[in-house]
Target: Ornithine carbamoyltransferase
Amino acid sequence: MGAGEIHLGKKESIEDTAKVLGSMFDGIEYRGFAQKDVEDLAKYSGVPVWNGLTDKWHPIQMLADFMTIKEKFGHLKGLTLAYVGDGRDNVADSLLVAGSMLGVNVHIVTPKPLFTHPDVQKIAEGFAKDSGSRNLITDDIEQGVKGANIIYTDVWVSMGENDWSERIKLLKPYTVTMKMMYMTGTPDDQLIFMHCLPAFHDRTTKVGKEIYEKYGLSEVEVTDEVFNSQYAWQFTEAENRLHSIKAIMAATLGNLFIPSVDEGSK
Model:
């Protein structure tokens, strides 16, 4: 249900809408803006609520992302993921925290004005102590991508923002190029590129054309060469959103029997 079909917080309170939806459905996925809205839906609806995306977090994306990484490498612990771009957006925040939970070393490579917020860093540090994850937040591209197994990026202007000129000025040196991929020093078979999409890697979209006409950029956060290279795993990542959300629904709504390791090996 889009903004034109539901009065969430506009003509009807979140609490009232939550109660109505909770009486009609077995679960709700919220994909919107305010983090508080999804928390209020969970508080009042009486059914499972999944955070499909807010201005603060993108947890469902993380399940697809780390599923993809495990599909490629066969394990997670000890791998290094370098996120290059806006270090304060919901994807960067979520990667730092989720990676810290899983023992993946996460490097946030971003200009100093866009360093990850201290509260998010603190959450990640708590998980990293238990998992052994070694994280880094730096504006030094060479240091940040060195030894990475995964180079990950996202659009430079996040939801609720429109400051393209300022972001381009800050982030133009952080475009993911083939040179950056080689800068990792990682063997080809141990290196992939990821992007949660959509991506501005060419001028074939309306927004891509507008960016080119206004700022002269044919490619923004990633070059077309990298996007269509041997390293590109963004479409497997996109497919895995289907499988991971089905797993979430099965785990929260289904009557599942999940055997323990001992039972599964018998």
Q: What stands out?
A: The longest helix spans residues 234-253. Residues 201 and 219 are 5 Å apart (CA to CA).
